[in-house]
């Protein structure tokens, strides 16, 4: 898609729309977590998303992929998600000394079924090319946001 002739406001409007989307999604996630007896942290959501995307992972793999370097934070998150029935720790099939964290996909699917229905209803109004453009944009945004974070702090 060409961007020639696009309004200079569009990037700002997109950023604001994405921020509204993230805020609304976070609100929905917190409400779903409360119904499951959890106080949702960003880390919990990341653990669930990473397991859904990658399958079973070790706690160290989860830490590396999420950027969460505190083993206590990761362990506490896995503990809370395990108590709520979303994940379970199992012995690795390749090395019985190691533990991997598995997602209970059915439990997560039940908890997020309302969102799945809303998304399905929403995309019904778009043709296949438009849907592909939306997915492409979100994939590109994910890659851009996944790049090395900028350095912070005093220079």
Commentary on this structure:
- This protein is mainly alpha-helical and 155 residues long.
- The chain folds into 2 domains: 27-106, Winged helix-like DNA-binding domain superfamily/Winged helix DNA-binding domain (Arc Repressor Mutant, subunit A, Orthogonal Bundle), CATH 1.10.10.10; 112-144.
- 63% of the residues lie in helices and 6% in strands.
- The protein is built from 7 helices and 2 strands.
- The protein has helices at 10-35, 42-54, 59-66, 71-83, 105-111, 113-123, 128-146; strands at 87-91, 99-103.
- The chain has a two-stranded antiparallel sheet.
- Helix 3 (59-66) crosses helix 4 (71-83).
- The protein starts with 9 loop residues before the first helix and ends in a 9-residue tail after the last helix.
- The model has no long low-confidence stretch (mean pLDDT 83).
- It comes from Phytohabitans kaempferiae.
Record keyword descriptors for this entry.
7 helices, two-stranded antiparallel sheet, 155 residues, HTH_MarR-typ, single chain, 2 domains, mainly alpha, MarR family winged helix-turn-helix transcriptional regulator, WH_DNA-bd_sf, WH-like_DNA-bd_sf, globular, 2 strands
């Amino acid at each position: 898609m060409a961007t020639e002739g696009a309004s200079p406001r569009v990037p700002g409007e997109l950023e604001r729309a994405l921020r509204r989307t993230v805020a609304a999604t976070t609100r929905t996630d917190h409400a779903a977590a409360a119904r499951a007896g959890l106080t949702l942290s960003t880390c919990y959501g990341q653990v669930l998303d990473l397991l859904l995307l990658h399958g079973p992972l070790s706690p160290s793999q989860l830490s590396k992929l999420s950027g969460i370097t505190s083993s206590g934070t990761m362990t506490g998150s896995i503990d809370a998600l395990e108590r709520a029935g979303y994940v379970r720790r199992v012995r690795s099939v390749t090395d019985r000394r190691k533990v991997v964290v598995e997602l209970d996909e059915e439990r997560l699917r039940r908890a997020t079924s309302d969102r799945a229905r809303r998304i399905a209803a929403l995309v019904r109004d778009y043709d296949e090319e438009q849907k592909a453009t939306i997915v492409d944009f979100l994939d590109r945004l994910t890659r851009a946001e996944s790049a090395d974070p900028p350095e912070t702090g005093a220079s």
